[in-house]
Design brief:
This protein is α+β, with helices and mostly antiparallel strands. It has 3 domains: about 90 residues, no CATH class; about 55 residues, Multidrug-efflux Transporter Regulator, Chain: A, Domain 2 (Orthogonal Bundle), CATH 1.10.1660; about 100 residues, no CATH class. It contains 10 helices and 13 strands. The strands form 4 sheets. The protein has a 5-stranded antiparallel beta barrel. Helix 2 runs antiparallel to helix 3 and helix 7 packs across helix 8. The chain starts with a strand and ends with a helix.
Length: about 260
């Protein structure tokens, strides 16, 4: 048995492995996803209720509890996708925005987690990492990489992912970074600018400013790279995946950005 996701991924289902009860419940949810009389909230209430055989009873009466065992279950990504399918059928799902979430390559996820590319592909195949395949290459959601448990296989990065020169200086403008973790080992260089390192990141934002002329950059892990700006800089393994040159748009994008 196969299931095709909203974004076109094919998930193969081992019917014997998942069991008849879970399979019957999945069929019920699939029918609800295609039923125009059923809205998105109704489907969510059923799919994540304690009726779902892959979930344990939760603290809230009637609601199931999503633990690691549930997340690892081969049917879990299908239940999650059915919510997107219902949204698509109701006109509330934006496939273009959904695709933008998948911004990491296998090698970049491998670099971040400290495990081999083949281990990343195995995790994708087991649906433990949220990914799609486009033009022969897997693209992964950063949030799923961040939450992925690698246990004893994890190798801590020995060198920083980035070296950053940041802050504000009169006459030079400003470079303001936004990372999920604090910049470490911060010192001042000969020009009086702050320098520090970032050990790891999945998605970050940079705002540059010269007399009100603001620029926004969104960066993710990538190959060796360097970005310089009026004495400020970012060096290390990163790539720019989004750039906004409009000052108002850049300021808004930076304020609303959530790093990972």
């Amino acid at each position: 048995m196969e299931y095709k996701t909203v974004l076109g991924e094919i998930i193969k289902i081992d019917q014997e492995k998942v069991g008849s009860d879970a399979l019957a419940f999945l069929v019920r949810c699939i029918q609800m996803a295609h039923d125009p009389e059923v809205n998105e909230n109704d489907l969510i209430e059923v799919a994540y209720s304690e009726e779902n055989p892959i979930l344990k009873p939760g603290i809230i009466k009637g609601r199931g509890f999503i633990d690691q065992e549930a997340l690892d279950h081969p049917l879990y990504p299908i239940f999650a996708d059915l919510i997107s399918l219902k949204g698509k059928n109701q006109g509330t799902f934006n496939s273009e925005n959904a695709l933008k979430q998948y911004s990491l390559t296998v090698s970049e996820a491998s670099e971040f987690l400290g495990i081999s590319p083949s281990a990343i592909r195995q995790a994708i195949k087991a649906h433990k990492l949220a990914a799609i395949k486009k033009d022969g290459q897997h693209w992964i959601i950063p949030a799923s990489v961040k939450s992925y448990k690698v246990g004893s296989r994890h190798r801590k990065r020995e060198t920083p992912a980035l070296t950053v020169c940041f802050g504000t200086k009169k006459g030079s403008g400003a470079l303001i970074p936004k990372f999920v973790n604090d910049i470490e080992m911060v010192t001042k260089n000969d020009q009086g600018l702050k320098e520090g390192v970032v050990m790891s990141f999945l998605s970050a934002a940079i705002l540059t400013n010269t007399q009100g002329d603001k620029r926004f950059f969104r960066i993710v892990p990538g190959p060796d790279n360097e970005m310089k700006f009026n004495g400020f800089f970012i060096k290390g393994k990163f790539k720019i995946i989004e750039k906004i040159n409009n000052p108002r748009g850049a300021d808004k994008a930076f304020k609303t950005f959530t790093p990972a």
